[in-house]
Write a structure and sequence with these properties.
The structure is a homotetramer.
Chain A: E1 5-12, H1 17-27, E2 31-40, E3 45-53, H2 67-79, E4 83-88, E5 94-99, H3 104-114, E6 121-127, H4 133-138, E7 143-145, H5 153-166, E8 171-174, H6 183-187, E9 193-197, H7 209-216, E10 220-227, E11 237-244, H8 251-274, E12 278-281, E13 284-287
Parallel strand pairs in A: 5-6, 5-8, 6-7, 8-9
Antiparallel strand pairs in A: 1-3, 1-4, 2-3, 9-10, 10-11, 12-13
Chain lengths: 288, 288, 288, 288
């Protein structure tokens, strides 16, 4: 994969935005590889993702603070009141995986990572159980056990937070992590915690969604990957998928079929996040 | 299509049920074409559908009351405490279609009926608007307008009920009929009213499900066909399906994509009902 | 739907193309609503679709020959050796539908057209059979019968050609039209004839694809919409979809299930064509 | 999962077959849990799968040769000229996995086996490369390397055959095994070798199906699991599935998306085989 730079922009919709950005990239020697944009009529927002080849780009992108880019781009950013971010595909974001006992999503993510599907680093796995140490060892990823109980929740979250800082994590993935973080914790990491819910949200919010689905007698079950917000299972949806079930399927069959869904849906969401393809507007995602 | 007889059975699970039924059909000269059964562990129920060729059957099935069959089958039925029903594929059930202004499901059902996909009669279309008269004329189906307002609801339902009786309807299909029947009315026709809901139940119950789905930012929208019960959008689900959407889709796009879903899901449900493939247990369906 | 202008561009990949086009639109007062592009590495081709709001555009687009636009845009077009086309959403392209006896795709297209899903005109239906006259009448579309036999093929094609010219058709849709046009005829209308093949191309080319699929025992059947080229069932694929089948499905069931596929796949392809979303490179399509 | 006995029957279609089998099971104290049957009109074949609870069955099923069952069932079997087989869910069939360098299907099967999804034993993995030894070790499965070259093919197949016998394998799975067995070898194991083909058969037979699919510009790619026969990629299809692709997908993307398909399709096929749900008629499968 060629190295590329990705510019993500969000601003009030106005004339000349595409032209200004495309012209900026061109004037500085960049070659646009992909450009996607979306204008949301309801909110009047304009969202854009531009991926360009920075080989001949005349602005220094090696600087971690992007000071030069920031200075040169600021006239456009200010004119259009842009919120923006520049990512380099050469920078592999650091992802911490959280897991409890169910290991299917963990194993799936580690395998995909190893096979090159996910262009990120995995500095650490955090679990509230020791069970998945052996898998972590096989893939040579450090594994930290942080027990969480009703009584030590605040302290445990502080410990998790320290680990996140220590390992310089860019984002976190809850790969069937059976603990609910406090609002305080969640609000610290906006658009930086990805969860997989084993139900077709907004149906079957909360605990035991497969049992809920079985009770209701649905003919399709689903899984949903979303960013975590303060409200349980309510954050911006990144990806969803479903699979057909029938009266022949027991709850155990739903759980088994669901595992395949969860793996695929979560790994797609992680990949989209890693490739900087997701922009938020309100409580919704644009996936470019 | 060959003529066939379909025996539908529901009873407490017990040994010897399949053998007794298969033997009964065989002893009387029937040839089993299809046999499906399901034992529901939770409720301890056994459900079975046997389709047989009655060409050489030695029990008279021409009698409308099936007195002979009833007498001969009663020892088995009583032994296993069976609830049962015998249907003949030569009998085309009579379906009344209810429609308001949106005509896509109506047009779809009429076309499928004409092309032979639905082995039923359509003696009448009932609407609360005159708009779809022209379509009814094209397909040569009588069209009755029964206005329903807040004030005349009880009276209107009596009128509808008279039409159902007069036209000897076996079942009713609400093809995007925008009125909610009273509990009294609904309870009169258990497992005899099929609705199409333009949402993936149990998500997005009630009004404007596509708008709800748009607001929530889901990545798939769905449609659900179910039997109507007293509780809104809560009856046994017959069929569901979904289609992918993205940030590029406006509410209008959701409505457009949803039309295709609604047509396919409703027509599948109607076909399954007409072919006597649906059995109920609790608030769930077995679809054989 | 707002009126918009759509610029479609195809050229050798080079730096500055997005910027030049975006800047051109902006300088002349257009507001870009959607922009999509694709660079094909293999062929070195750059393809782009830009949709803009022409309300304040200072170039006259009312002129049918677009002489003014052509003059102003030519420096860019020449610099990058662009093949380009400008379409106005206010111009509803004229589509002639070809049909034989099977009417499901015809009925589906006419219904969608009437309900506003397809922003085109339908000046004429051409058939080699009189059977579908009644449907045409219902939708008030002229219906011409052009019989084709082995002996009169050349003459029949000349007659069809006259009808195409007379009705100023922009493109033709073969909605289960059971005749194969000559190479001469086909080559006259590149990327202007859309066909629906009732098989998952490139599997099951030629006659009776559902019978072929049944014989092979596949677990999914498909339908494919493509532009017609000289080579049978080999043109650029626009859209495909599949549906699950099993041993319980007879050939008749495959045909029935296939009808739903064909309708959906063909209508999606027509809609994409009407909205100027399809660009060709080699024998493949980019669908924006 | 309860222990059960599964009777698989194939015979010319005739009256009384279901009754005779159901009665036989009942008379001997078995309780039918599931019964599925299919009559194929073309070939005049009747196929049936009966799963029953043998807890109170009065015929000895512990005997490996099933001599008692054989004797008692033979009158029915002879009367209807049945080909039949009795399997016990308590017997876990022995599966040898063949793999080359691509490990995704291998890893997936091993993980599913470990998590209890596949009720079989895996006595051995055979590969023509040493690469996947480490994965085998992690799952504690013996791993044999049998190099195959043009010159030693006959000898290598003899070696494989010895391993199959030595490990008493019931069936073999080619989990992206990049060698083609000789007809001699294949014919030794009818309906006992399962392959995964990374294309939507019968499209894209042979080598590099994803490259073929990319060249043709299809909008969906597929994977197919089938029993291996003498003719390449032509055996009875067990399971297929597809995933959507677009012009944005490179060949590498097709390969990546295809991996997920291959895993799911192959593991479903293996599970169906292990649960004795597949019957053959001609070159086709019935999947109960």
């Amino acid at each position: 994969m060629k190295s590329s730079a990705i510019l993500l922009v969000s601003c009030p919709d106005a004339k000349g935005e595409v032209a200004s950005i495309a012209d900026f990239v061109y004037r500085h020697g960049g070659n646009i590889l992909h450009a996607d944009e979306h204008a949301d009529e309801e909110s009047g927002l304009f969202l854009m993702r531009v991926e360009f080849d920075p080989k001949d780009f005349d602005i220094d992108l090696a600087d971690k603070d992007l000071a030069d880019f920031r200075r040169q781009f600021s006239p456009i950013a200010e004119k259009f009141r842009m919120t923006w971010r520049l990512a380099l595909s050469s920078h592999r974001p650091r992802m911490i995986i959280f897991v409890s006992k169910y290991d299917h999503c963990l194993v799936d993510l580690l395998y995909r990572h190893q096979s090159g599907e996910l262009a990120c680093e995995i500095p650490l796995i955090i679990s509230n159980h020791p069970d998945n140490q052996r898998v972590a060892n096989f893939y040579k990823i450090p594994y930290a056990v942080v027990s969480i109980t009703k009584d030590n929740k605040q302290q445990a979250e502080r410990q998790v937070q320290s680990l996140i800082e220590e390992h310089k994590a860019d984002f976190m993935v809850l790969a069937r992590y059976m603990q609910i973080f406090s609002s305080d914790f969640v609000n610290r990491y906006p658009q930086r915690i990805i969860n997989i819910h084993h139900g077709f949200l907004p149906a079957f919010i909360g605990a035991k969604p497969y049992h809920q689905a079985f009770e209701r007698g649905v003919k399709l079950i689903g899984a949903t990957s979303h960013y975590v917000t303060e409200v349980l299972d309510d954050g911006p949806i990144i990806e969803q998928d479903v699979v057909r079930v029938s009266h022949r399927d027991t709850v155990d069959d739903l759980i088994r079929k669901g595992r395949d869904l969860e793996k695929v849906v979560l790994s797609r969401a992680v990949r989209l996040h890693v490739e900087n393809r997701i922009l938020l507007y309100g409580n919704k995602t644009v996936v470019f």
